[in-house]
Write a structure and sequence with these properties.
- The chain is 25% helix and 32% strand.
- By secondary structure, the chain is α/β, with parallel strands linked by helices.
- The chain has one domain (3-174): D-tyrosyl-tRNA(Tyr) deacylase (D-tyrosyl-trna(Tyr) Deacylase, Chain: A, 3-Layer(bba) Sandwich).
- Helix 2 packs across helix 3.
- The longest helix is centred in the last third of the chain and has 17 residues, at 126-142.
- The N and C termini lie far apart (36 Å).
């Protein structure tokens, strides 16, 4: 990914978070992108890759829970962003036999309300974030779905071919854990 594209991508991610009015309610965040392919590298080595499916950047805020991680896994598996035979987004990643590349990214929870530098006071501590990320990964793997991951705490290079493009900021609000989706 070129430096200009990486800067644009980072700006889009920060804009999505900043304009969603997080307020006081904490949301576990999954920034999902429908991709033709995606991969993540650490120190020049590819550590995770998928063909078509979803690249999901995961942000964990203070106060996020195991229940939110499990619910995010459920939503990622069932969120309908793939076209059916009529060209409508009516199929999920399981129905199209796609893969998931899950990448931890604490910068998704950046506080961008003030100044010209992001703050990360909303981010959960690294140990809590890693535990919730691992719980999310385990929940998705339990479904039998193809899963690849980034490495928590590593300097990662993420490459993708966005399909559509389709990019959605998916949040799990703790107040909506028991509501069903259609």
């Amino acid at each position: 990914m070129s430096a200009a594209l990486q800067r644009h991508y980072t700006w889009v991610c920060c804009w999505l978070v900043a304009n969603d009015k997080l307020g006081q309610t904490r949301h576990m965040i999954g920034l999902l992108q429908r991709v033709r392919d995606a991969r993540v590298e650490v120190e020049g080595e590819v550590i995770g890759a998928i063909e078509h499916g979803l690249l999901v950047l995961i942000g964990v805020e203070k106060g996020d829970t195991d229940a939110q991680a499990s619910r995010l896994a459920e939503r990622l598996l069932n969120y309908r962003v793939f076209a059916d035979s009529n060209g409508r987004m009516n199929q999920n990643v399981q129905q199209v036999k796609g893969g998931l590349l899950l990448v931890p990214q604490f910068t998704l929870v950046a506080d961008t309300d003030h100044g010209n530098r992001p703050g990360f006071s909303r981010a959960a501590t690294p140990d809590i974030s890693e535990n919730l990320f691992n719980l999310l990964v385990a929940a998705v793997r339990q479904s039998g779905q193809t899963v690849a991951t980034g490495r928590f705490g590593a300097d990662m290079q993420v490459s993708l071919c966005n399909d559509g493009p389709v990019t959605i900021s998916l949040r799990v609000n703790p107040e909506q854990l028991h509501k069903s989706d259609n």
